[in-house]
Automatic annotation (TrEMBL):
Cross-referenced Pfam families: Rhamno_transf (PF11316)
Coiled-coil regions listed: 268-295
Alphabetic keyword roster: Coiled coil, Transferase
Entry protein name: Glycosyltransferase
Higher taxonomy: Bacteria, Bacillati, Actinomycetota, Actinomycetes, Mycobacteriales
InterPro entries hit by this protein: Put_rhamnosyl_transferase (IPR021466)
GO molecular function: transferase activity
Key word Coiled coil present: yes
Length: 395
């Protein structure tokens, strides 16, 4: 396969963790003016654009977003939903995985929802990749423009290793090692890993990095960092695919917008940290599931499940019977606690060597009970143990 036939995946995070409809109104207009028309020009290529959204995005906002994207980029856009930014990494990797299997190479661009690339951007990127097509690479087209969106002006900007101008090329495992580092370290990490690290500032401008007052950063400081500004030209509009009429509508809209109070992605920092902790726990549980079900024919791998009563079941108080299945010959025990949190053993049974079915019973008063069922057995790999914790409600 020719390098230029490599699938391209663009991934854009869009308003994750933000639910203010006034904020979204201006953001969607900017997306409509800049990113959607810019990326829509690549629909004839092997190109897929994944837009990552919060699962709790307001319905009205999603309706409008879907309408904007359908009008400008229908056919190659996919929406992905996450619970928080902590899941973005998985969303990006899953987007690439949905396009290519692990053995194939892919080119990934992590572009923001207010930036653009030039019409020949991917042609120039693949020119660089084609020099050593068997090598994983991080290619950054460092020559571009800053766009002062409120004033509709552009200025020269040299900025290597930024999301709007950097493409990651290689197999999924290779990309995973570099793509989620801090963006300022992408090229240095690629070089350390033995990948090609390219920062090209030759030729015409390749990216458009937008400055506006709604971003999480100082608009004034960014604008002041550009030496010379000029009005956006017809050539700029054509090069980056900007919808100039939509941009002018955005200018009028954002002029009436109040200043954002605080950085949007930090305003619920405590809750986000807790979600990151939960994500780590989820990953550990997933590893346990993979371990258990990767050897379903191996009798030494422990497993345990109940038939009844199930999680959160409402059952009649009195004598309650617990049935389930585990490894043949295991010892299965039933442990119970109420409000104290101190478990006591209520029943146990030693199973026959040719059976894994178990039945345990105990007397329960009215109330909510924490159930713990433990299965243990010896194997040539040592002592094996599986534990099942859940709740039931006796009434």
């Amino acid at each position: 396969m020719s390098v230029r036939e490599t699938p391209i995946v663009a991934v854009t995070r869009c308003g994750i963790g933000v639910f203010d409809k006034k904020w979204w109104a201006a953001r969607l207009q900017l997306l409509k003016a800049i990113t959607v028309p810019s990326l829509s020009r690549f629909k004839g290529q092997n190109f897929t654009w994944y837009i990552v959204l919060d699962s709790a995005i307001p319905t009205q906002v999603y309706e409008e977003l879907h309408s904007i994207v359908s009008a400008g980029a229908q056919g190659f856009v996919r929406f992905v939903f996450v619970e928080s930014n902590s899941q973005t990494r998985d969303a990006i990797m899953n987007a690439a995985k949905a396009v290519v299997p692990p053995s194939k190479r892919v080119a990934v661009l992590r572009i923001d929802d207010d930036d653009a690339v030039a019409a020949d951007f991917f042609d120039n990127v693949f020119d660089e990749i084609a020099k050593e097509p068997d090598q994983p690479a991080v290619v950054s087209m460092a020559k571009g423009f800053a766009l002062n969106a409120p004033d509709q002006e552009v200025g020269n900007l040299s900025y290597a290793s930024h999301p709007c101008n950097t493409v990651f090329y290689g197999r999924l495992t290779e990309l995973d090692r570099v793509m989620f580092q801090n963006h300022v370290k992408w090229l240095s990490v690629a070089k350390r890993l033995g990948y090609r690290a390219v920062a090209s500032d030759v030729g015409s401008p390749q990216f458009l990095y937008t400055y506006h007052k709604q971003a999480d950063g100082s608009y004034e400081k960014r604008v002041g960092g550009i030496d010379t500004w000029r009005k956006i030209s017809a050539a700029d509009v054509e090069r980056f695919g900007i919808d100039l009429e939509a941009l002018r509508e955005w200018v009028d809209l954002q002029a009436s917008m109040p200043a954002t109070i605080g950085l949007t992605w930090r305003r619920a920092q405590g809750e986000l940290w807790k979600m990151e902790q939960l994500k780590a726990s989820m990953k550990q549980l997933k590893r346990e599931i993979v371990k258990t079900n990767s050897s379903i024919f191996d009798p030494t791998v422990p497993f345990l499940y109940v038939y009844q009563p199930m999680q959160k079941a409402k059952v009649k108080a009195g004598r309650i019977k617990f049935t389930g299945l585990t490894n043949n010959g295991a010892t299965v025990s039933l442990h119970v606690t109420g409000k104290t949190g101190i478990y006591r053993e209520m029943a146990s049974v030693k199973l026959d060597a040719d059976s894994g079915d178990f039945a345990l019973a105990g007397n329960f008063n009215v109330g909510e009970w924490n159930i713990r069922i433990i299965s243990e057995f010896d194997s040539e790999k040592g002592k094996q143990r599986k534990q099942l914790d859940y709740k039931i409600h006796a009434r």
